[in-house]
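To the wet lab folks,

You asked to see what we're planning to order before we commit. Fair enough. Below is the target structure as tokens, and below that is the sequence we designed to fit it. If anything looks off to you, flag it before the synthesis order goes out.
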């Protein structure tokens, strides 16, 4: 089955983590998503596709910024994340946002129904990325803008690499995945991303490097931030759950020590490096 591992993760522990920690993830990711969204002229959009919209924060934010009569569709693989996104629509009464649970690599939309597509870190998980982007392009009107943000390499993103380096002292971490394997860092290489978009038929492809300090676990002391930080990485999180509090304590304590220099004003602060990608269908 296509995207089997990703489906299992995002409809399982990964999706549940994002639902519970939606506000924390938004604090970290909002400025980066906004930087990519600035590449789309929202005033001229009638129907936007939010790719891998997760719990729907970007979709709802876009809905509020569109012109009268315009709307946004958030599409995502994850059952718990889209269920949660739909509950936010019911709660807020937003009229111009809807959520679809689907695999954007496989499930076709009606041809040319969107006039823009956006994603905040939702495009790096396809096991056949060219097929995924061909499917997205088929749903876009010719010439429609696509804009997304994706991570540069793990070593340029300390929020990831610090936890892994610390955990390695206590538990066996799997060797780093192949650089292009589906996952958060699959789109770190510009040539690879450009070739995927070209092969899928996109034009005017521009990748702009973007560096910005991000904030995590605001309002938490360094110890709580370390406990939560351990949960971001699925391997470390599984260890903490299975080992129990006592056995996981040395790892959490070491993590708190490693994180302390990055903790100020009640939050963790890390430099981040991303690509802002724009193209035309
Ligand atoms: C890192 S999360 C980002 C979520 C959201 N865009 C945000 O910024 O809060 C990646 C999202 O991509 C979704 N995703 C992964 N593969 C997908 C696919 N083949 N089709 C649709 N969504 C997918 C996941 O379910 C997950 O919600």
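Sequence we intend to order:
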């Amino acid at each position: 089955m296509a995207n089997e591992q990703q489906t299992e993760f995002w409809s399982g522990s990964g999706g549940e983590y994002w639902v519970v920690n939606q506000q924390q993830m938004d604090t970290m990711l909002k400025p980066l998503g906004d930087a990519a969204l600035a590449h789309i002229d929202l005033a001229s959009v009638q129907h936007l596709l939010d790719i891998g919209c997760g719990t729907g924060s970007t979709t709802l934010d876009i809905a509020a910024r569109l012109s009268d009569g315009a709307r946004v569709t958030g599409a995502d693989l994850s059952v718990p994340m889209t269920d949660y996104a739909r509950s936010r629509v019911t709660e807020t009464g937003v009229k111009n946002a809807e959520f679809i649970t689907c695999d954007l690599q496989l499930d076709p939309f009606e041809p040319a129904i969107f006039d823009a597509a956006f994603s905040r870190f939702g495009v790096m998980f396809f096991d056949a990325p060219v097929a995924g982007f061909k499917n997205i392009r088929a749903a876009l009107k010719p010439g429609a803008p696509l804009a997304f943000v994706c991570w540069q390499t793990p070593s340029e993103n300390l929020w990831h690499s610090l936890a892994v380096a610390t955990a390695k002292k206590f538990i066996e971490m799997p060797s780093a995945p192949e650089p292009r394997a589906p996952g958060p860092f699959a789109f770190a290489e510009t040539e690879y991303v450009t070739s995927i978009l070209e092969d899928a038929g996109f034009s005017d492809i521009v990748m702009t490097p973007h560096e910005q300090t991000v904030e995590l676990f605001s309002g938490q002391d360094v110890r709580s931030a370390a406990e939560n930080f351990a949960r971001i990485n699925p391997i470390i999180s599984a260890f903490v759950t299975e080992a129990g509090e006592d056995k996981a304590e040395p790892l959490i304590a070491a993590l708190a020590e490693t994180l302390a220099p990055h903790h100020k004003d009640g939050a963790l602060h890390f430099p981040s490096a991303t690509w802002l990608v724009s193209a035309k269908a």
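Structural context that might help your review: The chain is about 40% helix and 20% strand. The radius of gyration is 19 Å.

Thanks,
Computational group
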